[in-house]
Specification:
9 helices; 190 residues; mainly alpha; Tetracycline Repressor, domain 2
Length: 190
């Protein structure tokens, strides 16, 4: 049975949306067959939409980054004059920590992506630059370059703190990591 181009695009978007959440939640080792089965689609049908799992992973990272950038923009818009403080507190919140599937791809996947192909790592490059670029306008610094570098340092540190917090079994220790990181980054940058 032939489907319309719009239906094919809808299916592709469904696969991409599900993969973006699933990779962040369960890691890059998610099997394509399992992902497609969850969506009630065939494994072979995957290749009508994506050239490879690597291509899907790169696009899924970019989608996750777009979602994260939108969250960051909403948080900043809700707190005029306190944008950076709000971004830091939202990013390093227990809610974000407890939702890896809906949260930051860098925090969820950085160690795994480090072992992936250059194309996937380049998608991670774009993710870091997009997030830090969006934050740079709120950063302290003498010029644009210094604000951009400060944003890269802050975002990398927050992603690392969130990743460590997510790895901990002890809820109290997890809260300590998040609270300590929030306090440090607020004092240093906001």
């Amino acid at each position: 049975m032939r489907y319309s181009p719009s239906r094919k695009e809808e299916t592709r978007d469904r696969v991409l949306r599900a993969a973006s959440r699933r990779f962040r939640k369960d890691g890059v080792g998610v099997a394509i067959g399992d992902l497609m089965k969850t969506l009630k689609l065939t494994h072979g049908g995957f290749y009508r939409h994506f050239k490879s799992k690597e291509a899907l992973l790169a696009e899924a990272l970019e989608r996750a980054v777009g979602e994260g950038a939108a969250r960051m923009a909403r948080a900043a818009a809700e707190a005029p004059g306190r944008e950076l403080e709000t971004i830091i507190c939202t990013y390093l919140s227990e809610g974000h920590c407890n939702d890896p599937g809906g949260g930051c791809a860098l925090a969820a996947l950085a160690p795994e992506v480090a072992r992936e192909s250059r194309a996937v790592r380049e998608a991670m490059d774009r993710a870091l630059l997009q997030h830090s670029g969006a934050m740079a306008m709120y950063m302290p610094g003498a010029n644009d370059e210094q604000r951009r570098k400060n944003a890269i340092a802050l975002f990398s540190g927050m992603a690392g703190s969130l990743g460590v917090a997510r790895s901990l079994a002890d809820a109290g220790l997890r809260r300590t990591v998040l609270e300590s990181a929030r306090r440090l980054y607020l004092e240093a940058y906001a």
